[in-house]
Design brief:
- GO terms for molecular function: GTP binding; GTPase activity; nickel cation binding; zinc ion binding.
- It comes from Photobacterium damsela subsp. piscicida.
- The protein is of the alpha/beta class.
- The chain folds into two domains: about 80 residues, Rossmann fold (3-Layer(aba) Sandwich); about 70 residues, no CATH class.
- The protein is about 30% helix and about 20% strand.
- The strands form two sheets. The chain has a three-stranded parallel sheet with strand order 2-1-3, sandwiched between helices. It has a three-stranded parallel sheet with strand order 4-5-6, with helices on one face.
- The longest helix is centred in the N-terminal third of the chain and has 12 residues.
- The mean pLDDT is about 95.
Length: about 160
């Protein structure tokens, strides 16, 4: 995939040293990603959507109230992994982030404009693979800005920084 869960676990390892963190983890099936989150020491509530392709506000509300801690710092919502359905639903988040792997192609912001129009930030992940790919990072950023002129971008490798 794009590396959402890897990026989230690496972020939590650093952030949870200074701030309380929790995760609401959305997937159609399994607890695999929530288990990876919990392995960092951070609380995670798994929400399985079954045949659904996204979380909705009620699912997030219910999961939020399952979190034990009254001390809130950061709550991350990792939605089901696609660029179509999650874009259209307001989950009450402060910041929607679109994560795009450079292995997916620079045309994705144009193919899935709703996600990039809704996002405040686009994370371009796996940039350590750029020497091995035919990926135009400037074109990707330009494509994202065509659908959302205010979108911020961060270039990184979830595994290497």
């Amino acid at each position: 995939g794009s590396g959402k869960t890897t990026l989230l676990t690496e972020t939590l390892i650093l952030l949870s040293k200074q701030w309380p963190c929790a995760v609401i983890e959305g997937d159609q099936q399994t607890t695999n990603d929530a288990d990876r989150i919990r392995a960092t020491g951070v609380a995670a509530i798994q929400v399985n959507t079954g045949k659904g392709c996204h979380l909705d506000a009620q699912m997030v509300h219910d999961a939020y109230h399952q979190l034990a801690s009254n001390e809130r710092g950061f709550i991350f919502i990792e939605n089901v992994g696609n660029l179509v359905c999650p874009a259209s639903f307001d989950l009450g988040e402060d910041c929607k982030v679109a994560i795009l792997s450079v292995t997916e192609g620079e045309d994705k912001p144009l193919k899935y404009p709703n996600m990039f129009a809704a996002a405040k930030v686009m994370v371009l992940n796996k940039v350590d693979l750029l020497p091995y790919l035919d990926f135009d990072i400037d074109a990707c950023i330009a494509n994202a800005r065509r659908v959302n002129p205010q979108i911020q971008n961060i270039k990184l490798s979830a595994k290497k920084g």
